[in-house]
Amino acid sequence: MGFKSGFAIWTSLLSLASAQFKCSLPAGDICAYENATTYQAVNAPNCTTRGLQAFVNRVPGLNGTALTVPYAFYIDSNATLDEFTDYVGASVFTTDIPPVCAFRVNGTNAEGASWGLGALLPTHFNGSIMMAAPDAGLSWGVASAGLKYAFATFASNSGHDEPDHVSGWETPEGLVDWSHRALHLSTLTAKSIVKAWYNVEPKYSYITGCSGGGRQVMKSIQTYPDDYDGAMAGAPTWWMTHQAFYSVKQQTIGGAARSNSSIPASLYSIIGEEVLRQCDPQDGLVDSIVSRPQGCFFNAEALACNSTQTSNCLTAPQLETLQKIYSDWATFDQDLIYPRTWYGSEATWNTTFGNPSGSWYIENVLGIKNFTAQDLTYELIAEADARDPAHANADDFDLSPFFEKGGRFFHWHGMSDSVVSPGASVYYHNQATYAALEKGIDIDQHYQLYLIPGLEHCSGTPECMAALWYLAGPYQAGNFFNFTPANVVDNYVHDSFLTLISWVEGGHAPSYMVTTDFDDNSDPMTLLDNRKICPYPKQANWTQTGVSTHEDYWDCIYV
Ligand SMILES: *[C@@H]1O[C@H](CO)[C@@H](O)[C@H](O)[C@H]1NC(C)=O
Ligand SMILES: *[C@@H]1O[C@H](CO)[C@@H](O)[C@H](O)[C@H]1NC(C)=O
Ligand SMILES: *[C@@H]1O[C@H](CO)[C@@H](O)[C@H](O)[C@H]1NC(C)=O
Ligand SMILES: *[C@@H]1O[C@H](CO)[C@@H](O)[C@H](O)[C@H]1NC(C)=O
Ligand SMILES: *[C@@H]1O[C@H](CO)[C@@H](O)[C@H](O)[C@H]1NC(C)=O
Ligand SMILES: *[C@@H]1O[C@H](CO)[C@@H](O)[C@H](O)[C@H]1NC(C)=O
Ligand SMILES: *[C@@H]1O[C@H](CO)[C@@H](O)[C@H](O)[C@H]1NC(C)=O
Ligand SMILES: *[C@@H]1O[C@H](CO)[C@@H](O)[C@H](O)[C@H]1NC(C)=O
Ligand SMILES: *[C@@H]1O[C@H](CO)[C@@H](O)[C@H](O)[C@H]1NC(C)=O
Ligand SMILES: *[C@@H]1O[C@H](CO)[C@@H](O)[C@H](O)[C@H]1NC(C)=O
Ligand SMILES: *[C@@H]1O[C@H](CO)[C@@H](O)[C@H](O)[C@H]1NC(C)=O
Ligand SMILES: [Ca+2]
């Protein structure tokens, strides 16, 4: 069927959304997706490698890019889904999705770019698309979780399939692809495919990602403000040059392994328990969660060894190391190099502190081979900033081009993240606020930052805290669970992605979000409780007029 004749059929096939997009909000609340118009896949080819190849060959608007389709699967049941996930190794691909054609496209163009695009095109979609930002390879799990919203969904590979730390991709062109170009070209390819497939221009475009994917999201809205309308970035590694040196700093902060100043990993949980003992009540509620690590006065002496306590305690040189861990890293002039690790992140220190293991960015991107802690100097960081290969730092603080075309940016970060410091997100938000102020823009209407108490890097929480860290939305849902819990996803305050959609399409800037936790973190149907999280710099405070396990009894206040 040609694209032209498809148009006539499409106009006669406008149909209502299926009952699957059900909404259960109190009367008066926005629930745009209920009864939403959906569009049929009027021009869809047979979902085979051959059918898809013929289709992409004819997709207009790609200016002579070469597209190849290495594989395609039609998924109409959980059985075919298994076949597909086995093939692409996507362990958390969500089950119970609408029928989709799943395929990969490899693209190249004359400028030397190359990109891999994963596509999940349902037989009906509601006019909007979602991209899973590149992290390592194609994030099929995240893309699959976006199908819940009746979107056509995609994933980009940032130009290479292997994780970033596996070297081999860092050619000059590979660096540009990784920095921003592969995602941009994946986006243009996706939009052209959608237009040809459904005979309708994509209406709204969304993107989500965490960590390296969070950097890609930020780079996208900074470099190509027209690509997306709604962007969600978690724990972004936006400050690559400084992030990389901080990772080395973390590995060596206590000096040589087993020196008298190094803190053995066996003490991390003991430090974490003491932090919890002191900082938990300081936020106003003893609930095993450190909610205001920035405001905690921590007395590290409580951990000191003495004549009666000689084990499970810290010596004087170790206490000095601890002091360094909890302090911002700055130059002699007090310019910030990288923000400190926050109280309440100790449970993950075994992945970040100690164990010198090098840095792929310093070795393979900056090309400083056999880098060791002894080589670390301020001059080297300044040199890295000056070079910033392929300008991978997402450090443009002026988001006005994105704001002015109606773009909305939802930024989130866990307070218990020791991999990417939450302070790096605060720093970016502050700088972006100053840049917006200069242009007379009210930043809260366009960009909000949510710091989530007790959340580690992108997902998870320390065992001793059991904090509420789940904010739903495709990133967390698709990356960590293989299904989306229906009881969290149908309501826009409980699903951060619906919040973003309502913000973009309805102009409703959120005033808070809700996080959730579960009895059993591997089973998201076992909902335990909910709590408000607040747009920075506001913080959640229990009203004491009802249970602390329900979001209604929390306020967002300036502390
Ligand atoms: C969706 O349709 C049902 C049945 O017609 C109606 O009761 C409901 O109010 C509609 N929802 C919205 C958001 O328009
Ligand atoms: C799909 O495949 C069938 C059987 O091979 C063929 O008859 C049909 O023309 C194909 N349709 C499209 C749209 O390519
Ligand atoms: C093709 O060219 C048009 C016009 O210059 C441009 O807007 C579009 O982004 C290009 N598309 C790709 C995939 O390069
Ligand atoms: C094309 O896709 C396949 C995966 O099916 C991948 O192994 C291959 O490296 C890709 N080629 C390019 C140039 O990206
Ligand atoms: C697929 O699996 C989900 C979750 O396990 C289940 O709810 C659903 O009924 C299954 N769908 C089909 C078509 O078997
Ligand atoms: C598509 O669905 C989302 C939520 O699932 C909704 O907010 C949006 O309005 C829908 N878009 C269209 C064009 O119907
Ligand atoms: C720690 O080790 C250094 C170097 O070996 C030594 O000079 C210092 O006295 C030691 N400090 C303590 C408190 O043991
Ligand atoms: C020694 O340290 C432990 C805890 O580390 C503390 O409970 C105890 O009071 C201290 N004893 C003295 C004599 O300071
Ligand atoms: C780090 O510590 C946590 C909490 O004690 C534990 O669950 C995890 O397995 C440890 N990870 C490594 C790499 O040692
Ligand atoms: C780095 O170290 C490896 C072995 O440790 C050595 O073979 C190599 O020559 C070194 N490279 C440079 C550039 O010093
Ligand atoms: C938090 O709420 C409680 C109860 O309403 C109130 O007493 C307290 O002052 C609030 N905390 C702050 C920092 O405003
Ligand atoms: Ca607390």
Automatic annotation (TrEMBL):
Q: Which SUPFAM superfamilies match?
A: alpha/beta-Hydrolases
Gene3D superfamilies xrefs = alpha/beta hydrolase (3.40.50.1820)
Instruction: Kindly state which keywords UniProt assigns to this record, in alphabetical order.
Output: Calcium, Disulfide bond, Hydrolase, Metal-binding, Serine esterase, Signal
Give the enzyme class. Answer: hydrolase
Q: What is its EC number?
A: 3.1.1.-
In terms of Pfam families, this protein maps to: Tannase
User: Does the record bear Cell cycle in its keywords?
Assistant: no
A GO molecular function annotation here is:
feruloyl esterase activity
Give the signal peptide, or none: 1-19
Record-stated family: Belongs to the tannase family.
- The protein's name in its UniProt record: Carboxylic ester hydrolase
